[in-house]
């Protein structure tokens, strides 16, 4: 994947994460993804 595509891919992932979690879980999960570079544990 070209580096230029990474922001778009992150936006898609953020949308999926936001849609799949309750509102109070979205922000910590997003912070965990950004901080670790890995998917949050289910």
Summarize the structure.
The protein has 2 helices and no strands.
Secondary structure topology:
Blueprint: H1 6-20, H2 23-36
Low-confidence stretches: none
Secondary-structure class: mainly alpha
Structural Rg: 11 Å
Query: Element order, helices and strands?
Result: HH
The overall pLDDT, averaged over residues, is: 66
Helix content: 55-70%
Biggest beta-sheet profile: none
* DSSP summary, beta strand count: 0
Number of helices: 2
Q: What is the end-to-end distance? A: 26 Å
Tell me the β content: under 5%
The coarse silhouette is: elongated
Describe this structure in words.
The chain is mainly alpha-helical and 42 residues long. It has helices at residues 6-20, 23-36.
